[in-house]
Amino acid sequence: MSESVLLIAKNWPEPNSTAAGRRSLDLLALLQTRGYVIHVACAAEPTPFQTDLSALGIQTHAIAVNDADFDPWLADLAPAIVIYDRFVMEEQFGWRVQTQLPQAMTLIDTSDLHCLRVARETALKDAQPIDLFNAIALREIAAISRTDISVMISQTEIDLLHQHFHISRDKLLYLPFLVTPPDPLRQPGFDAREHLVMIGGFKHEPNRDATRWLKTVIWPILRPLLPNKCEMHVYGAYADHAMNQLQARKDQFFIKGRSADALATLSQYRLNLAPLRFGAGQKGKILEGWLTGTPTLTTPIGAEAMASESQLGYRPSANPSEFAQLVAAAYHDSARWAELQSNGYRILEQNFARNLFAQPFLERVDQIRATLSEHRQANFWGRLLTQNQYRATEYMSRWIELKNQLQREPMPSAEVPANPSPSNTSTIVPILPR
């Protein structure tokens, strides 16, 4: 009988809406090639935009947080590997997995390092130096420490975890976005494309900030440098009123909402913009630009973990005037445009080609599974954080679970016998550390 892998997902994967959704499917597809039966469990509500996982041979399960019914279900499923989709899922379910399946190998797919993204956002908005040791870091680093492996999408973040938080590199496993580089001859050329595009889901704060910055600061500088008919089109799932209010027809700035097919949409445009001022991890919006042969111009934050300056063929800039000049030059000059397009194809081959990363990743997973006891023995801080006095999230979950149970059950009769005996006296027993 084949062994199974369980992904405990924060949201049902929506690869057309978020890079995180694409990332989850990359990881699961890779493990499928090893013969694992894949299960995805999620407590979030289904959406009309989620991937049909059953069509991919993946079994799905609706679960609930703070619910003891999860425990026997998990024990019966008995996956060999449990993957937490970001640290919040480890906080919620990690103690249950450890209790029911202590021998299961556990992984966190960080997607991006949340404490880094939050630190950059706070520093930008408060005009303060970056504080990596924030409240999110305390939770995220603890979750990373408690699990066997963290699957990282950014070499920059691996270095940061090792240098600043002293996480062993043996616990950090690099896996970028995985692609098969496209055929350049199948993509439209310079003259067949027009206008500028930006794409990214609006539930993600870096994308919301980038859209505001593009509209209010960059576009007034950039628009006079472009042909009169050139328009700026911004696509993104879950656009709310605040984002839609940025549309300005008279300024040729349009909020287009969700794209049904991101790759088909991007292939129509001459340039793809990613003016990110904060964030972390790899950026699906940039990857999709390269996949469609759409030259992509970004900032240093956007380029981080994606490609070096020499690979890009330009110096990423967070200066609005410099950014506008980069865009205008590439929009007008067909030779420069073709050079940037070729650079994008080359980056895909060097940094993201599936055949470069799939096998080493699977071999490392196999190796750790084969020596799991020794691997865990070396993880002293992780073992320490599973001790009773550091398991606040478990006991909070147990308290909520008991509270919910008491609310569901009918209250006992208020009538009390005159001389109660031990047999009919109700006692509430506190939950104590095991």
Characterization of the model:
With 434 residues, the protein is of the alpha/beta class. 44% of the residues lie in helices and 12% in strands. The chain has 18 helices and twelve strands. It has helices at 19-32, 70-77, 87-100, 114-126, 135-146, 155-165, 205-222, 241-244, 262-266, 284-291, 300-303, 309-312, 320-332, 334-352, 354-370, 372-377, 380-384, 392-408; strands spanning 4-9, 37-42, 59-62, 81-85, 105-109, 149-152, 172-174, 196-199, 232-235, 253-257, 271-274, 296-298. It has a seven-stranded parallel sheet with strand order 3-2-1-4-5-6-7, sandwiched between helices. Helix 8 (241-244) links the parallel strand 9 and strand 10. The longest helix has 19 residues, at 334-352. The chain is globular. The two termini are 34 Å apart.
